[in-house]
Amino acid sequence: MTFLRAAYALALVAVLLPRSAVGAPAGALDRSSDGGDGLEMVGEGVVSTPHHEWTPSLTPDGRTLFFGVADPSFVSATRFWAIAFARRGGEEGDGWQAPEIVPFSGGRSSDGYPAVSPDGRRLFFASDRAPDRVGSRSGDGPTGGARGDFDLWVVERVGEGWGEARRLGPEVNTGADELAPGVTADGTLYFASDRPGGAGGFDLYRARPAGEGYGRAEPLEAPVASAGDERDLWIAPDGGLLLFSSRGLPGGLGSDDLWVSLRQGDGWSTPRNLGPPVSSPASDTSPWLSADGATLYFASRRGFGDAPSDHALSYAELEGHLRSVTNGGGNLYQIPTARVPALVEALSESSSAGERPLPTPVLVGPGVVSSREFEGHQELAPDGKSLYFTIYNRAFNRDTIVVSHLEDGAWSRPEVASFSGRWSDVSTGISPDGERLIFSSRRPRPGEPARTDLDLWVVEKEGDGWGAPRNLGPPVNTPADDYSPVFTRDGTLFFCSNRPGGLGGYDVYRAEASAGWGFGEPRNLGPPVNTEHAEWNVGVSPEGDLLVFMVHGRADAVGGDDLYASRLEGGRWQEPVNLRELNTPDNDYSPKVSPDGRYLLFGSNSFPRRRRRSYTDLVEQLDGVLNGAGNIYRVDLEVVSRRLGEEPRRAPAH
């Protein structure tokens, strides 16, 4: 499903099931309000404190929360803002750990409104730092200080950290304030500004990507715009749904309320107030919908001061209120999407409004699995807790198979697989029971000289490890290359080979399991899968009815190596379809379907095309994750089903 359809489905399930039957949403927090409405404070006493917190923004996996922290004045001329982050999990369970200041904030200027891009690779924010302090920590340095108005900046992921902050260009930034950025999967930037010519104080704007920057920013006009302030926003990855705060639209409940509007052509539907318990008489701002669409996060200044006290307070009581978490400063809250009727209705309308862009691929284990090295040929173990993949050297003549394990929701530092590390080994396929692993290698057969072609080898489980590798031999192996193995649930082996008798450079073959641990004579899949071009790097669904593979040289190619898919219907493979929503101008390769049939994992060596302002900037990107070497991505298998013109499929439970 698309993001909006998935969000609606989750919301519908939550509405239909009793609350006890619905799992805790991503980012389950600490306490519910007394009204039983599902509203909870985020990390009370840890994230939400007596200070002012606002603008929550989560990474796609929901494990890291970015937010703004402000001094008590918040909007005065003496303001001080900083951007903090908190990670989920640790020795105390799955709660939020103590926050830290991000490395590019916390200096003498103010930074706020963090917004993570849908793929988690970039973080946009607002800052009043001086433009010439690009390499400084938020205004540190000889000139120090802030320049007065707020501009929008962006930082990109570099390994496990962040690169240098970069100010966006004049198409976005002006001499007025630019705040509250949000970005779609295609890079379109939404933000708020009080520049001249708007409908009110702050208005919402949109700037589409153009070259290495953006085109001219366009205002979002009525019915979204009002004579008041429209400011904090969240935009869906596909650009179809907008959440924002307003203190000017008719029908508001307080100083700032939260509203939802749907994309209609190039305009927007009449906004709907999200209503209680989200909107309240207090200031409610900073909406953010979780990546799975199940949870709405926002900031609110509700608390002490919302209503008169039932008695005259003593000084001790007053002091207690002022120093409490709910002292009227901003706190972060969350609520299941299903508990917000206006949002459920909007998602429903958007879901039934027609086709929308497909889900966005997510980088797997950024900085750990996907690193500055060239990774690919990934294979998940049947239990989903071990990921085998190949790391290539830069000359592509020495490949090594490594393994990472899922520990506390994160991938561990990879280790060289016990059967690899000496010879050039590449690509793995694990049997459905997890007891055997086949891989490709140039290692010599026993008693034979070193080989230049790839053979398929097998290792079997021995305790917690693997036994000695054994060559599969004929009829699977030949003097040509035989590699890229993958199993179906019934034990059938698919692989690629450039053996004689094929249709092109490399073709896809299929070999049925035979008695013992052998295979029958491999059969070429033939046209339309195999052609005069090179079909290699193959992935198959657990049922064996969906083929995803890499092709080089077809007429409809998007880049150098593209991913294609074909469905088996009536015993015949259908005409392959280019997965152009995934393919890039670079190389996209090594597709594999996850053992549960829910996801497609693949490799890509795409990287951001942008101007490098200095040699240091160039080296920083070359040392980063997105340096043009291959990385591993994951995306919902719907991207394939939809491209084939099907309703999304799910593998049956086993």
Sum up the structure in keywords.
single chain, mainly beta, disordered C terminus, Neuraminidase, 654 residues
Compact description:
This protein is mainly beta and 654 residues long.
CATH architecture of the largest domain: 6 Propeller
Largest sheet: 5 strands, antiparallel
The strands making up the biggest β-sheet line up spatially as: 1-2-26-25-24
Structural class: mainly beta
Number of helices: 5
What's the CATH class of the largest domain, please? Mainly Beta
CATH topology tier name of the largest domain: Neuraminidase
Q: What gyration radius follows from the Cα positions, in whole Å?
A: 27 Å
Summed up, the domain count is 2
Low-confidence stretches: 8-35, 133-146, 352-357, 648-654
Number of strands: 51
CATH homologous superfamily caption of the largest domain? TolB, C-terminal domain
What shape does the CA trace take? elongated
End-to-end gap: 22 Å
Strand content: 35-45%
Helix content: under 10%
User: What is the typical, i.e. mean, pLDDT?
Assistant: 83
